[in-house]
């Protein structure tokens, strides 16, 4: 079954066409700057060639048309007909408490995604644009919504309830939801498989480290705690997000800078994190280059990031009452050997010893970066959210015999 996986942002659309029998990526690409001047469309079929064109994309429907046309293009298209696409899988950031697993898209599912829009105002409306565009362009194709929050719905109440008047949870569902669930789910399963340990009897901490970062404590294959909260702003210091802070800071900054709450929250989301600390960039590659040139703020920002990751790993080891494996994934986790080394240096009390050579050589690929005698295995497992979406899509569509 060929499944088209779509991940819509407010001004972008990433896509992959995946054969779910072989799990091979047949084609992939991105539509960038949707609704903004200077749009760019890229298409990369499985033969490794890549085409990029500058084209205006006023909305997501135009972007998806470009994707579909590229897939059946006589010159370098991968399909003879769009009939070969059996279903589409959509990444949805927020499913609230309603969705504990992926769901076939229907009017009720769309309604609940809309209800969660105020919890993810930058994401859910964009996802809905992608769903509606597919409904119009491929009206008879089944669609599946795969939720970032679903994997974390196994958290116990003690982990997701905030220390607020309980009525706010009852009235507004203010609680920890967590994100990157599709990534944490894939990586934890692959970690257990890679290490040859039973998932149903395991304690794994997964570290999804990128521009957006989160950590998850996973017991017997189920999320029991995670660092992001009601929104993706809570948790680690990230690329542009502040992560955890004293909530009184919001009012303090608002008064000192003559800003309203919304403006301060915007600063916490878009101008903070390692960007705010370094004053340079949210991209860890830029920080590495600046650090190597002697930029002390760049080094400091990286050290702050690593410290916060290590601190969360320590707390989640306590939550799990032990840990079998710690796994790094996503852009920083898979590639930033300095960051990984800094994090592990804080964890020697767990009996962890870093294999320096393995850490240097394990870039963007699976590997163990702890020594053989390390009491806890430390791994690098490249995440694959698109594959998880394709798997869920295939399972749900096949289950309905569509």
UniProtKB/TrEMBL annotation:
Enzyme Commission number, as recorded: 2.7.2.1
Q: Give the record's pathway.
A: Metabolic intermediate biosynthesis; acetyl-CoA biosynthesis; acetyl-CoA from acetate: step 1/2
Q: Where does Mg(2+) bind?
A: 7, 385
Tell me the active site. Answer: 148
Binding residues annotated for substrate, in chain numbering:
91
Q: Where in the cell is it found?
A: Cytoplasm
Any one GO biological process: acetate metabolic process
The reply to whether Zinc figures as a keyword in the UniProt entry is no
Task: Detail which positions bind ATP.
Answer: 14, 208-212, 283-285, 331-335
Q: What does this protein do?
A: Catalyzes the formation of acetyl phosphate from acetate and ATP. Can also catalyze the reverse reaction.
The UniProt family comment states: Belongs to the acetokinase family.
Q: What is this protein called?
A: Acetate kinase
Lineage of source species: Bacteria, Pseudomonadati, Campylobacterota, Epsilonproteobacteria, Campylobacterales
């Amino acid at each position: 079954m060929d499944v088209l996986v779509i991940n819509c942002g407010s001004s972008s659309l990433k896509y992959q066409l995946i054969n779910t029998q072989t799990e091979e990526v047949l084609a992939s690409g991105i539509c960038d700057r949707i609704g903004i001047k200077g749009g760019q469309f890229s298409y990369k079929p499985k033969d490794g060639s890549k085409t990029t064109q500058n084209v205006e994309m006023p909305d997501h429907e135009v972007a998806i048309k470009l994707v579909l046309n590229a897939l059946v293009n006589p010159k370098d298209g991968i399909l003879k007909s769009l009939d070969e696409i059996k279903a589409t899988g959509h990444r949805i950031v927020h499913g609230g408490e309603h969705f504990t697993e992926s769901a076939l898209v229907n009017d009720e599912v769309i309604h609940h995604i809309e209800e969660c829009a105020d919890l993810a105002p930058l994401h859910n409306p964009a996802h809905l644009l992608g769903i509606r565009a597919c409904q119009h362009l491929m009206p008879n194709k089944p669609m599946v919504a795969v939720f970032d929050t679903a994997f974390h719905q196994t958290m116990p109440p003690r982990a997701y309830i905030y220390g607020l008047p309980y009525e706010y949870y009852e009235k507004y569902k203010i609680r920890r939801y967590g994100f990157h669930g599709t990534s944490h789910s894939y990586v934890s399963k692959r970690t257990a498989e890679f290490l040859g340990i039973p998932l149903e009897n395991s304690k794994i901490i997964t570290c999804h480290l990128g521009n957006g970062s989160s950590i998850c404590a996973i017991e017997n294959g189920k999320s029991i705690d995670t660092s992001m909260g009601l929104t993706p702003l809570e948790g680690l210091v990230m690329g542009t997000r502040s992560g955890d802070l004293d909530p009184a800071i919001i009012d303090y900054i608002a008064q000192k800078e003559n800003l309203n709450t919304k403006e301060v929250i915007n600063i916490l989301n878009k101008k903070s994190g390692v960007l705010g600390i370094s004053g340079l960039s949210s991209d860890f590659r830029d920080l590495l280059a600046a650090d190597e040139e002697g930029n002390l703020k760049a080094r400091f920002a990286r050290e702050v990031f690593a410290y916060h990751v290590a601190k969360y790993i320590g707390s989640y080891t306590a939550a799990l009452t032990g840990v079998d494996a710690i796994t790094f994934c996503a852009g920083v986790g898979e590639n930033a050997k300095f960051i990984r080394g800094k994090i592990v240096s804080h964890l020697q009390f767990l009996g962890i010893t870093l294999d320096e050579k393995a850490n240097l050589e394990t870039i963007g690929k699976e590997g163990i970066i702890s020594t053989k005698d390390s009491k806890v295995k430390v791994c690098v497992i490249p995440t694959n959210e698109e594959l998880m979406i394709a798997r869920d899509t295939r399972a749900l569509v096949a289950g309905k015999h569509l």
